[in-house]
Amino acid sequence: MWSKVICVRCPRSCVINVLVEEGAVKSIEGYGCGLGLEYAKEEVSSPKRTVCSTVKIVGGKYPRLPVRTSVPVPKNKIRNVIRALHGITVKAPVRRGDIILSNVADTGADIVAEMDVNEEGNH
Amino acid sequence: MMEVKRDVVVMGGGPSGLAVAVKLAEMGRNVAIVESGDELGGILVQCIHDGFGVKLFSKALSGPEFASHFIEKLRELGADAFVRTHVINMERKEGAWELTAVSPKGVIRLSSKAIVCATGCRERTPFEIRVGGARPAGVYTAGMVQRLVNLYGVLPGKRILIVGGGDVGMIVARHLYLEGAEEVLMVFPEPWFMGLPRNVQQCILDFGIPFRPRTTVKEIIGKDRVKGAVLVKVDEKWQPIKGTEEFYPCDTVIFSIGLVPNASKLEELGAEMDPRTRGPVVNEFFETTLRGVFAVGNLLTPFDYVDDAVETAFIAAEGVSKHLNGEPRREKTVPIRPGPNVRLLIPHHVEWLKGGDLTLFLRPSVEVENAKITIKTGGSVLYHTRRRYVRPSMLEKIVVSRSLVEDKDMGVIVDVE
Amino acid sequence: MRLEGKVRKALEKHPDKNLSYRIKDGVVFLYGQVDSYEEWVEIGLEVGKVKGVEGVVNKITWKGYPEEKVREREERRKRIFEENKDKMIGSYDVVIIGGGVTGTAIARELSRYQLKVALLEKSTDIATGTTKANNGMIHAGIEAPRSTLKRKLNVKGCRMYERWARELNFKYKMVGSVWLITPRTLEKYKRYLPGPMYTFALRYILPYIVVFKALLNGVKGVKVIRGAKIFEVEPYATRDSVAAVYVPWTGIVEPYEVAIALAENAAQNGVEIFTNTEVVGFLNEGGMIRGVVTSRGTFQCRYVVNAAGLYADEIAELAGSPEYTIHPRKGVMVLFHKATGSYVKHCLAEIILPQHPRTKGGGINPTPHGNVVWGPTADEVPDKEDVSVDPEEIQLILTKYSTILSEFPRQKLIRYFAGVRAATFTEDFVIRPAKWVRNLLHVAGIQSPGLASAPAIAEYAIQKLREMGLELREKPNFNPFREATPSLREMKPSEIDEIIQKDPRWGHVVCECELVTEAEIIEAIRRGARTTDAIKRRTRAGMGECQGGRCMIKIAMILSRELGIPLSQVLKEEAPLFNGHVRGEAE
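^ Those are the sequences you sent over. The predicted structure of the assembly is below.
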């Protein structure tokens, strides 16, 4: 059976058609790049999403630090991931890529910082 | 007062400003960036979602990550960046450009032979679409909310109405939905979302956020704080249909209704403007009609991909170099005009005598499958290419050989069929 | 005919309504029921027109009368009254109710004398009512009917503005006004003036009628201009202008700047200004007010000045001397970007007779900071707090006034807003001692030309207070000068560098559209601003092209920091801007 998925990996939003027969992916058409190919394969069986959010940070310029999952996590775990971020407070300085939380919500993905935050006094 | 002399001064430290500065520094020019905000990265700092850089790096980075790449490069190359520094005056003095800027350190006078403006866009206000009502607290534009939520961790309200089916609106809808809003509804006048399908999928459909197409806001209700909005259905011409008004209770209305280039300074200086893009008229190296002043990124027209915006920066860097080298320009420019199916098109003309391939960006005014993009002159087709699908919400890029266009004194027309 | 007879005659025009009236000391009280709000206004105005009527208290109700709301309001006032009637704040010679341009002008005038004065304002800041939401025009005094008090005070007040601006340091420009006479001017009467007579009347008769009206009103120096001269004076005037009347005395201000400057000077000279202080009742004894009861406590007083604008009628009633009812009249205005300032040199209007009921008295005005404002309209509205704008009204304004200029970039619209005029049924200022309370001075019904008349209103009010027995002993150290608010956009680069070296916050531009720095925002807070709108009025931050899109959050951050309150508690004007934190995680 053919399913249509819209790739979310980048703005191109390729419309990818996936043929699934007997529980296995038989054919994939319409992807624009490697990320899309990967995405389409997973979307029909175990859809995953990258979750981007923020956590509290003290000692930096802004009170929030943008973070993301290191790899896409199962779609049905998105809310668990967000909930796991609740109450976390990080102290500046932080480097881009620093692991804030390992294996968030038991998904195997880590929560990593998206940017550098230097230690600063309040402006 | 501090005096700063450079080959090039870049106004704006967002992705395009960073990219042009990095490229110029790599080319051996001494560059300085002047940035009004507190940090480099521009709008990307608040765009914590991913999808940036797929064309350039084959990676789906978040905004801050994408910006970091260029910020680090800039640091390595030793170019200066003046943050919290705002240009208050720009004028031409004896063939060079002089900028006067204020910063907490004092007044800074920058002079250079070339300027690159990378000041991006601002958001359209609800006044520009004649929304009625009073002016209570609780009315925002999507970019404001994105910044508020992502950098400050503060919510604009709890029961949210988002007006506009564009990307920023959808992304903000998702943020708010996940980060503590009680209710989110999205309305827009078009029959379907205007933003990228990927965002429809991962922001709206994934979470089941309610939305109403062919609907807009007629009036905001509430004097001190938003109490609700009067929604009304619209027809294909976006005209409200009488009798379909409905009161929707909410405490926050967020408008995501488009971006407008921050081009007032250029306009004041006398640069020619394109009423379609609302940005400056530029040549193939994105130089404005003010000699030595280049425009890159969203200042030209809002780009869907930051990768494309950054590409204009790379091209402009070449142009700046040509300008600094004193390379010759044509006596008469070759105009590049949009055809009837093209809503806007940049660049607007070919001005330099020599150069590489031409990169054009166009926004079609039609939605077509198996579309043909053509370049014609006086009826004959010089070039054509096919696209599987074109729509107004996606900016198309085409690269053509300069020789095809440069000798066509009467100009060429780019169209979509 | 005696007053009673005249009033009865006026009411007889509505025989099928069961209307009744009562007259006391020249004030007519109306009772009964009508179908619509429009009728309520009409009847009130008709009775108000009767010669000898000194005020109309219109107690008639209409279908849809907000009984519930009125009752809630009364109950709320009673409750706050009970909570505060025994809480003594202090003893004052004069308590002024209302912090608009009228109240602050009177406060400033009173601060010249050795008196303990309190100004009470229910909102979070000065000038949040009618004063902030008008087109800032300082009329010369030609429009108001000759026999009215408003005309007299307008003509006087207009000429006092130059001195005020000098002493109080607010922006003021005597730009003058040009009233264009075009083929549309007498179009409704064209059939009475066939052929060449029409143009002749427009060119040679009508202008002099206007000059004559001006002279009768006490406004001299009005000139008539014709032909090419019109375009020398006003380059973008509509090409089909036949003649024009030039009035040199008309001025422009930012109305809230005037009130803020007055308030600061008054405070400088000892007046105590209380914001967030709503008057809910009075303590009366022996026909006099002994105390003004507010949401903050009770102010003991010897005299009370009622300058409560839209609520002056309710205050008058609470005080025991109801002599007028306010029928709110809303006006919508459209504001354009500073880049359009070069299109308009004077306050412009096109004379159209008879006047369009919804746009009479309106036109196209420049503002002292370089914007252009079109409007206002005029609509009777039942709700005093109705400052909503209907998109149709914007279209009405854009269409109606587009005939004034040959060219104008209408797409450069940046904002539209509405204000509500506090009009009484006698359609004139009511500045007189209350009839039934000995120490209350009414300064009510201050509709247009209220702003232009303000200096003269204050003078007149002080005179009345003196007649009422208030001793006025001059203060030897009264300082009429209020320091201007310094602003980066008016400074030269050398000045800027110097001031940044003293305070680096002058180098931090927060509002890019209007070039407003952190230092200016902090100064505004020091001078009393507590909300983002209060900062906006004092610094212009948020008044530019992006309408606060880029700076509003920064301003809120600064307020949060300077006032020591969490970001989620920062107010726009009366209500908080934000609500809650991400995942409930407070700072």
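The helical segments of chain A are 34-45, 78-85. The beta strands of chain A are 2-6, 15-21, 24-29, 48-49, 52-58, 64-69, 73-74, 89-91, 99-101, 111-113.

Shout if you want it in another format.
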